[in-house]
């Protein structure tokens, strides 16, 4: 994260004695990236964060094997048809992924157990419902349209308030705002489509009493359930530049041109060999002769996965794409508007239509995406041929 925060009680200097009311020492925990060479935060625990009393291997509860996209084809997955179940961690159905990033979908109203992803950062988009995100840093109330960005190694849980649907992006590294939006010192620049004021972070510490508390941990070797002697939510204060935060897609300020702008203007975050973009309601292109709809394009270095979160998709009319759909357009395939969509939107502009209402989250990867079992289970097999109708 690009700016410093302090929550709760911390001593005046780092790594000095900081004592509890009973005279004992609080236990420091440094959460840091890239081997002490990047962003970090220092947390102060009532109990030792190292005290575990049990460890056991855990088998995944959902299928995680990936299948190459062969024969090469555009794909359409209907998440609306996926069953609800599990929680927002263990109930994730894998849609697509590669060595850099995995995308999943979950629908649940069940609180998750405590969870720590030690493989990389997560960015979870709340598609519908409301949920309380709780972590060692504190709590964040999140709802429809919120991205919740979770640093690697953060112990957390999800507590839904009714049924929640979510699109989860799990990285094999760190997810950050794009470098071109930031100054050399990390401040958001004036041309950035969002800024520090748009980010919501924990405002106070969160204390939960408990002993022998299990935490599900994901590592490159698989899943382990560690049992901690004391509840990890025992932090009295923390400070630093590394912490979870929420950002609502409706706070993204679209960048527009007189003619159609390419997807990089929608970029919201970047990760290792992938980017995340937000397509938001915005004015249509306003050059007198503009074609206010995406042109046919072939991203020779990228696979493009799009989650259609809301609004109207004029460019995809007749394809079967609807709210909740996932499209995957791989490198090696040219894609664009459905037949008839270009003339239809030009005519709509002539009739006074001036805005698009689409809302979508896109992940572009720079290595090919393989197909997940959840995606394949709800695939529309006719989608690839809709441009030839």
From TrEMBL:
Catalytic center residues: 260
Residues of the Homogentisate 1,2-dioxygenase N-terminal domain: 23-248
Sequence positions that bind Fe cation: 297, 303, 335
Cofactor(s) the protein requires to work: Fe cation
Homogentisate 1,2-dioxygenase C-terminal domain sequence ranges: 274-376
Coiled-coil annotated residue ranges, if any: none
GO MF annotations, alphabetized: homogentisate 1,2-dioxygenase activity; metal ion binding
Cellular component per GO, a single term: cytoplasm
Keyword Phosphoprotein: no
GO biological process, one term: L-phenylalanine catabolic process
Family designation: Belongs to the homogentisate dioxygenase family.
Protein name: Homogentisate 1,2-dioxygenase
Lineage, broadest ranks: Bacteria, Bacillati, Actinomycetota, Actinomycetes, Streptosporangiales
């Amino acid at each position: 994260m690009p700016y410093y925060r302090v929550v709760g009680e911390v001593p005046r200097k780092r790594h000095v004695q900081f004592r509890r009311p009973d005279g004992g020492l609080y236990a420091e925990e440094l959460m840091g990236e890239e081997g002490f060479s990047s962003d970090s935060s220092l947390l102060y625990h009532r109990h030792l964060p190292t005290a575990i009393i049990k460890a056991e291997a855990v088998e995944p509860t959902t299928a995680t094997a990936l299948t190459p996209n062969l024969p090469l084809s555009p794909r359409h997955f209907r998440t609306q048809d996926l069953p609800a179940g599990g929680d927002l961690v263990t109930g994730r159905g894998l849609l697509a992924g590669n060595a850099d990033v995995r995308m999943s979908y979950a629908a649940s109203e069940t609180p998750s157990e405590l969870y720590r992803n030690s493989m990389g950062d997560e960015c979870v988009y709340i598609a519908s419902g409301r949920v309380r995100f709780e972590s060692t840093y504190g709590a964040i109330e999140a709802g429809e349209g919120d991205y919740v960005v979770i640093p690697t190694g953060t112990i957390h849980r999800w507590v839904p308030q009714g049924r929640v649907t979510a699109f989860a992006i799990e990285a094999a590294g760190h997810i950050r705002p794009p470098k071109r939006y930031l100054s050399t010192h990390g401040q958001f620049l004036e041309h950035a489509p969002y800024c520090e004021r748009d980010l919501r972070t924990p405002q106070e510490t969160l204390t939960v009493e408990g002993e022998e508390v299990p935490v599900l941990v994901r590592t490159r070797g698989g899943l382990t359930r560690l049992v901690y002697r004391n509840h990890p939510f025992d932090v009295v204060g923390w400070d630093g530049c590394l912490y979870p935060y929420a950002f609502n897609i409706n706070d993204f300020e679209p960048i527009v041109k007189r003619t159609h702008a390419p997807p990089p203007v929608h970029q919201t975050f970047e990760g290792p060999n992938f980017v995340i973009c937000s397509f938001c309601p915005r004015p249509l292109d306003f050059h007198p002769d503009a074609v206010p709809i995406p042109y046919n394009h072939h991203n020779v270095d990228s696979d493009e996965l799009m989650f259609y979160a809301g609004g109207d998709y004029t460019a995809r009319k007749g394809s079967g794409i609807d709210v909740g759909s996932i499209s995957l357009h791989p490198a090696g395939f040219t894609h664009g508007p459905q037949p008839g969509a270009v003339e239809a939107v030009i005519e709509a502009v002539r009739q006074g239509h001036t805005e698009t209402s689409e809302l979508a989250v896109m992940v572009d990867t720079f290595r090919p995406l393989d197909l997940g079992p959840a995606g394949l289970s709800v695939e529309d097999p006719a989608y690839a041929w809709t441009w030839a109708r």
